[in-house]
Every structure is written in C-alpha cells, then in structure tokens.
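FAQ: What does a ligand-bound record look like?

Like this one, built around iron/sulfur cluster:
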Amino acid sequence: MSMFCYQCQETARNTGCTVRGVCGKNEVVANLQDLLIYSLKGLANVVVKNNIAAKDLDGINEEVLTGLFMTITNANFDEEAIEKQIEKMIALRDRLVELNGSAGLHDAALFSVGDREDKLSKAAKVGILATENEDIRSLREMITYGLKGLAAYVEHANNIGLKEYEINDFVYEALNALLDDELTADDYVALTLKTGEFGVKGMALLDQANTSRYGNPEITNVNIGVRDNPAILISGHDLVDLEQLLEQTMDTGVDVYTHGEMLPAHYYPAFKKYPHFAGNYGNAWWKQVGEFETFNGPILFTTNCIVPPRTPGVVDRIFTTGASGFPGCMHFVADENGKKDFTPIIEMAKTLPAPEEIEKGSIVGGFAHNQVLALADQVVEAVKTGAIRKFFVMAGCDGRMRSREYYTEFAQALPKDTVILTAGCAKYRYNKLDLGDINGIPRVLDAGQCNDSYSLAVIAMKLQEVFGLEDINQLPIVYNIAWYEQKAVIVLLALLFLGVKNIHLGPTLPGFLSANVANVLVEKFGIAGIGTVEDDIELFLGE
Ligand code: SF4
Ligand code: SF4
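The answer part, i.e. the structure of the complex:
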C-alpha cells in the first residue's frame, strides 16, 4: 500500500506525500480519507441526479460537512473514526438510493465495501491519482480543498444554529461535478470561481453566526502570561465548544486558556464575563509539541491543528471533539441537545499543576470589520494625509518551514507608514513584535481567525466605497498571504471571486497546481510567489 496527498503547503518536496505525511498522517488514514471523499461525491451524485434540495436533507447535510472537515490537514488521525464516517456516508447514500432509484448513478453512488482491507483496496482505485489528466486533476483537487475549507466554516456556523441551504446545495453540486468526466478544464475553472463565491457566503454566514451570538469583536489586550490555577488549554476554532467549556468550568478553580487559532475568542464581548478565561498560551499550531509539555494541564482540540504528540505524558492529556480525532484520545460527542459533557477533562485538570510560564505581557487584537469601521474616519484621514502609505494584508497560516521566517523579517522591514492587516495563525510571526502605531492605530491589526479574512475583505470594500474607487485593486492594499491548509484555499478562492488581483502567495505555491493551472492563475489573476524580503518590499512599495 502507498498513499498520495498534496493538499497542504508542507507536502513532501512540494509534489506529494507518498509514504507518510509530513503532517504525521499514515497511509491507512490517507487512503481512508480518499475513500471518504469518494463516498461524499457518491452521495452528492444521488442528491443532484434526483434534484433533492438540501433543505430536505437535514442531518445528512451536517454529516457531509463533517466528512469533508475530517479530511482537512491535521484534523483527524483516527483510522477508526474515518472508517466509521465512511460507513455512515454509505448508509445515508444507500437510503437515498433506495428512496429515489439507482438509474444513471455513478460508481461512487453505488459501490459497496466490506472490512478495512476491502475499503483500502477500493480507496487505491479512487484516490487523487485516479484522475489521469494532470490539469483536470489539479482543478478538481483545488475545488475539493476549497470545499473542505468551506465545510469547516459552515459547520461552525451550523453549530451556532445558523444555516443557509443554498451553500449545502452548492456543496452537493460541486462534489458531483468532480465525478463528471465530460467537464472541461474551462468548466472547472468556472467552478473554482463559483467555489470562491460560496466561500464568501460561508465566511459571511460564520461571521453573522459568531457576531450575533457573541457580539462584535472589539479591541482587546490578551494576557500571554499565566496564573497559579490548574488549567485547560483549548485549541482549534469552535466557539460553541469554548462557550460550553467556560460554562462548565465556572467556579471549579480551573482556568481556561486559548491556544493557536482560538486566541481571537478573547476579542468577543460575550467571553469577557468569565473571570477564569485566563489568556492565551503559546503560539501557532506547529509549536505545540513543546508548549503542551509546559502547559501541564489537559488540552481540548475542537478542530484541526493537531501535531501527533511524541511523549506519552502529553498524549494522555489530549481530548478531541467535533471533526478532530487522534487514536487513543477521548472524543467528546454532543447529546441530542448539542451539549457536550466536559467533566472528564475538568476532573483531570484539577489533578494537574498550573501552567509553566513561557512568556509575559499581552497582545492586542480585535480589529474585525465592525471595530475597524468604527475607526474609519481615523483610518481614512491617515490615508488621505499620507500617514498611512499602504496596507499589507498578511492573513493566512503559519507553519514549520524555515522559509516562513520571511514573514517576520518582512513585517520588521516594512516602513513605519504601513499597516499590516492580519487574520489566521500567520499573525504569530509578528504579533509579538513591537511595531508601534500610526496616530494611535496599531501597525498590526488582527481581525481574528482565518475565516475572519472575510472581515478584511469587508474593510477593503468599505474603503473602496469611501474613496469612490471603481476597482478594489486601486486601493493602497497589497496582499502577501501565507497558506498552509485547505481553509486557506477557500480564503484564496474567495478573494479571487471578489476580484482581488496580484496576490502573492507563499512560502511556496501549492504543489497541487499543475503548470498549466498555475499559468491560468498567473495570467488571469496575477498570482505570484514570494521573493526576498528586500526585493518584495521594493516591488510592493513601487508606485
Ligand atoms: S496533509 Fe499535507 S503533509 Fe499531510 S499527507 Fe497531505 S500533503 Fe502531506
Ligand atoms: S490560519 Fe491556516 S493553518 Fe491556521 S487554522 Fe487557519 S487555515 Fe489552518
């Protein structure tokens, strides 16, 4: 058995992981994930061929999103959990076939599999390389990765109770289109942009869900030191999980700290009422191996960003929920009312020492669209007077590669009349540097999680309106984005759909882009990679 995966920025040699993932994913997990995606395409085939509306598929819609989410980089390493999800999707698919008939359906909608070995043998025939034409494969995979990112964002919105069936309808349409051998490269380019359009809708939905339930993010100083109490570290993105954990830890003597992408939770007014919501511990996801050791307490993963732990002491303290999973770790499942009982993790926390301090001080964030637009007059004035020469959107991801030091050096080298707009875990490359402010406006404005890149787009569109510009690309905004996994792919596709051109993407261009598809992105959208800090700054600041 072997595997093939090239969905993330750290893929081996930027061409594909073929023996074991750089992320730690083994070949069984990789192949089962391929089969899970195939079964989702099959279910979509039944839905589309029979014109079934997503609004009639409650329950199934959620399982499809979870299935996609489970295959995101660093989300789920649990062979059994993925195998169970395949079986669930096939059973749901078969029920739909039974009700609607099987005429004209694709193999993906009809195949059956038995034990693990049988599943792996089927997976070998339906994985990424089953599409022989390199360009079609590249486009199909780019759309697939966009759908994975979209699914993650929509699942969070659904967890808060907000749904938009139009998005689910599109997910079925796109998954089914990925099976269609009649479609041309041009058709898939059009579908790629349509995926971006729904990326905007998905991020807008999540923004609406988060802000309607937890309030609009506001400027906040977040403590990065520690207290003396035992504590739980919560990682990932799901704010409902955080809310439930904060409620259940009230008056228990256990503090809660955020990690990685959960940091922006501190910016929401609703979470400020919890006195035991103690601060943020550590940095971006890839530094967790050392940081989890010194944290001392248990860790709850609500979504992706798991790095397989090496020390037994740490793995025993890891818990998962939602689409995340790791073999041997306790997994929390919601009851019929959506409630998760976090008692085991709270009880464990009480028995463990308080976190060890690894840094002191605070970081500032909370510059999502509502907060920035509240400062609009100040910002517009600073642009008009030349106090702010340019904005640099440096949203996106952080990762292990040394080449990502570029982003810290780039932030440090930017002239003092420039402002960085950030979102996602890329921020950890520069959010602890003292870059100062411009007339009271901090030079690093953190909007939030990677999905809050939507906020940055809203801000850009508002500035376009204020300055009366015809084209969003006339704004003094440069896009120098770092990517790592599939949520960043949907953010990129969303920006392309919004008409943003000349995005620089690094530290490497995606390995899943064939030469021809890369050319299309260069010619149509001006996408480019990164160079040296000096050359890029000169290029970006050239008038
Ligand atoms: S997710 Fe990335 S690192 Fe992991 S197997 Fe796929 S390409 Fe390799
Ligand atoms: S910022 Fe990037 S790496 Fe971090 S969680 Fe979002 S998509 Fe993943």
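Follow-up question: can I read anything off the structure? Yes, for example: The chain has three domains: 12-213, 220-350, 366-541.
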